[in-house]
Amino acid sequence: MKLEAVEERKLPMDPIDLFQTLFHKEGYAYLRGIQEEVLKEWNDKRDERDVLCKMNTGSGKTLVSLMMLYSKMVEGVGTVLYLCPDKQLLEQAKIQAELYGIPVCEIEEGNQFPADFHNCKSILLCTFHRMFNAKSIFERDNISVGAIVIDDAHSCLDISREVTTLKLLSSHPISQRIIKLFEKDLIFQAPGSYRRLMDGDPYAKILKVPYWSWLDRKDEILAILNEYAEDKELLFKWGLIADDLLSFDCYIGPRGVEIAPIHVPFHNIRTFNEAKHRYILSATFEDQIDLIKDFGINKVSIINALVPRDRKDIGQRLILAPRRYDPNINDADMHKLAVEYSNDGVNVVVLVPSADKAKQWINVGGEILSGEHINVNIEKLKKSNGGLYILINRYDGIDLHANMCRILIIDGYPAFTSYKELYTEMRLDSVKASLKAQIIEQGLGRAVRSGSDYCTVYLMGNDLLQFLGNNYNLQFFTAVTRKQLEIGLSLLDGQSKDNSLVTIRETTDLCLTQSPEWRAYHSQELSGVESDKLNDEKIKNLNIAQAENDAIDLYRSRNYQAAKEVILKRIIEINDLTGKQNGWYFQLAAQFLYMDNKPASNDLQIKASKTTPHMFQTALGHNYTKISANEEQSSNVLKFISQFNKSHDFKIYLEEVLGSLIFSPDVNSSKFENALANVGRILGYYAQEPESDFGNGPDVLWGMTDNHYLILEAKSMAIHGEITRENIGQLLQSGEWFKTRYGAGMSHTLVTLQAPSIKGWNVNPSENSKVIDENSLNKLRENLAQFVNGIVSHGTIAITSLQIAKLLGAHNFTPIAFRETYLTKIVLKKK
Predict the structure, then answer these.
(1) Mean pLDDT computed over 502-526
(2) Measured between alpha carbons, how far is 436 from 462 in angstroms, rounded to an integer?
(3) End-to-end Cα distance, the chain
(4) SS3 call for 408
(5) Are 702 and 720 in contact (CB under 8 A)?
(6) Alpha-carbon distances, residue 36 vs 43, 286, 530 (angstroms)
């Protein structure tokens, strides 16, 4: 019997019609409604080069991805490629293809491409890293593709940054040679921070090599790096970096040296850069500027992103923050509650940002799942009926569906590990907020993987709660997540605190037992949520990102003048930017111009350093920006507390400050100094950290509202029993620094902060030198706590300027009263 077709059938291009031709496994013959909706809309724009599609986790985006590619392959655009961040997702895509009968293939033994891929008969499934590296087999075989899908694009962005960034430990010969090469430049910018780094201080601030020093020594840097081209750290990266060194920056930190691109040089991956069509899929992109800057995705495709009308099929997440309900709940209480649930047969998974944070959970019986074989370890959860498991700094790429995780605990604020991100977050607050919100959102999505899934999430850690308590930060979450945060963070409002842990457990059980009342309430609350629209602020940020991308393209093509003009005219001149943003972009314009016009670049750099702190100081001298104390103190306090969403958030913030405001060799000095500056801001004063911000001057400077200044030098880690000549000498130097910048006649007091108030016989402080000793600091801490409690009792939103003024007076925080109450006379040690 002859069954072969006389001629090969012609398949339809429409993805929905094409789906009907597939040989599905039983039970897999239909598309879900949301999948049909997305494929129909995609088909209407299938000729566009870049398409961004946002679908929730569990909504079936892998099948949608494969159908897009299969449709384009049938159309005849050429080879098609499905990329995802790891082998786990690759295996899931392979299983999906088998269930629905979609033709797929993988790279064969010996790193060879299969014939079915070359002949456009199968979709190639591949991890993103196989394509995006300096020894890519796609470059080796000169592969061109008609269409690429990048699934879980946020994770692939992270991989692209990792593979184009050199991270070299302090012990590496490259690190040692680079630090030596730029030693004088780094000392000029920040002598104190540089010394801390060289002394091995693990909390020292990240330093960046000035761009002019980097560019002037490009040939020496190239020679050093080229010597180690076959080194393990450089092997799969150097080929992507070598020809683009001018568009890289160099950072020095406690661990060593990091050389990172301004934007990922995606254009060096020809297969990706020249693909006819690029389809970007993700569940968590609310802030998509990195797609423009690091992948070169067109701004228009982001503005017109493909978003299903109903994105609420994400399952039930009950998100609770116990300490916002009752501040008396501590970490030990939460550890006990988690252990109780695990003993009751419920799988509990804890996400922590660091190994240090994990120790607390290990001590109560937690088991770490992170490691080289994490996917194997995750399999334990499928067979586990009760257990306490820990993931360290893994907020994405982990699938914990159904009973694998019914209680998820996010303990602590995600920590940046990249020097570039750490350096940037100090200078651009919005960058920190958007990136951290995205990481938190990814973490929240680990345990709810479909519309029928459910999970309770506990949020812990003052830093995390403080972040979520700031209204500004909430804009960076998806609309549905914002609503779920709002539900959970307010659900316990007004409940009795007589037995808080019992109340929390009863509330948790509403979700875990799938109470009909809870399910109806959750559904009703989410029914009114509308998808976020691209508001003016987001459009502005996309325009800025597009301008940055265009500018660096010009810079890489050595059109330096035009690159500078794009930054000035399309970013600075036409956008309403903050002072920090203006300073940042003046410096970027100066960097782009330096190779073409050094004097003009220097002028722009002076503008940058005058506009905001933390910018490079030019070789012509430090451009210190003076502070001016000219507003009413209580108004400043009102302005400061307006950033907090709820009164508890302000209390949590204060706990963080007080936790670092202690004389102890175990509390890092930079944390103490930052806490001291924040105390000034809480009290309505103007505060700076000149030594850190500008590379010179005192640790902290307060501008009090009567135009009197406190020059504060902190010796918080000192363990000696008296004030030394060295201490006073440093304080007097800071006094001279103040006089040169503010004038000798400006009213000021020199203050050393350390436990003793006595000095040796050979120590000679000036008449206006004082000390905040242990007793004074304890009094300040106690009164500060009472001051904040007074504000909280009125409510951070309801309190008036007059009420704040009364509280300031009552706790001796007005300028004169503060100086009389907390500044102590330095006395001679009794013999």
Answers:
(1) 89
(2) 15
(3) 116
(4) strand
(5) no
(6) 10, 23, 20
